[in-house]
Hints:
By secondary structure, the chain is mainly α. It folds into two domains: about 45-155, D-Maltodextrin-Binding Protein, domain 2, CATH 3.40.190.10; about 175-435, no CATH class. It has helices at about 1-15, 20-45, 85-90, 130-150, 155-160, 180-215, 220, 230-265, 265-270, 270-280, 285-295, 300-330, 340-360, 365-370, 375-380, 390-415, 425-435, and strands spanning about 50-55, 75-80, 100-105, 120. A four-stranded mixed β-sheet has the order 2-1-3-4, covered by helices on one side. The longest helix is centred in the middle third of the chain and has 37 residues, at about 230-265. It is elongated and about 95 Å long.
Amino acid sequence: MGKIFIIIQREYITRVRRKSFLITTLLAPLGFFLLIASSVLISTFSQGKTHVAIVDESGLFKDIPIPDADDQSVYFHRVTENYDDLLSEVTKEESAKYEALIFIPADFNVNTPNNPAIAYRYVKRPGMIKQQFINQRMTDVLQKLRMKMLQVDEQQIEDMQQKVKLNFESLDNSKEKQGYTDAAAIVGMVMGFAIYISLFFYGTMIMKGVMEEKSNRIVEVLTSSVQPFQLLMGKILGVGAVGLTQFVLWIILMFGVNLFSGVLFGIAMGSGAGMGELKNSGLDADDLLIVTQNLSALPIAQIVILFPLYFLGGFFLYGSLFAAVGAAMGEDGDQQSLMVPITIPIIISIFIAINVINNPDSSLGFWGSIIPFTSPIVMCALLPFRPEWWQILLSIVLLIGGFVLTTYVAAKIYRVGILMYGKKIKMSELVRWIFSKG
Length: 438
């Protein structure tokens, strides 16, 4: 045990002191900050203001208001100038007062399908979102005109078109109020993807570390002092400690970045531009507020305790297999096919996790949460939905058993493969190593 601890200490200190560790630890929060900053700056400065002149020769729309864009990117102006004169003026970009024209002819027919008679003339091409907005504004104006001509009460129509918002509440769990499912889905998906990415990232780190020591013949010196199993366990536990440390630092730094971003960009993020994008995307600000309020109703203590457990369990299970693959690979690393049996369960896990978000009580979610090769990702996605304690305990027991089994298999492969050079390893040979005695 003492030798394993020394290897753990060596792996941990060596990797933590590397510049790559410091860079990747700082880059994630910095990337998060840049994402927030760029989204705010883009939404604030990149839209550009478009002043649209409306020439209504029909006179039908004169009493119907046309609201400007909520994000202040499009302004509508009713004008009385002649269309031909105004059109020639707009083409002079430098001195033009308007960037575009909407022309409604005198013989405009309200009942014409699709209304191709309304023309939008521009010099600078509007983007897809801006085109959709302008088209929707004119559609709304036309509908109001039709209701006015039919003497229909506009308020009554709006009342009839109001959407129904059901209050979804669990019968057997009073804590799951309206909006809880949305909050649980967001947190579950974030945790599931965090485990998914970490398995690939840190698993590959172990595999490359083993391949590097093997190619440099350092492992020959190490195995003269420690057993291959001790070396394998020390490497897995050491890199796992590095990963957990990096995760904790990421959480702390991202919390600080989020707080700093809220202070720095609070005004910009709460401006009309942000609200305009929210409305254009079809999201409801009230719904988002309900989701945010329900985050505190999640089983925070359970998540805080179990997430690191599943992170480490999944890492140890797959880390041992990645180490075995690194030991079995040749110096040229041409046997990437050995990774396929490892990566397929990880990819399947994330697909099951997505299904769990939509169907938390499904049988697929249950089996995915207890099978060791999928439980680290699937159970983390399921935790915010409050699974039964017996299901969690069963999942943990099976995950520990899976880790023991994969470590045994990996140790068999590692013991032989780590000292084998210049030979391509076939899958049949790996199977023979696993079932060999000794």
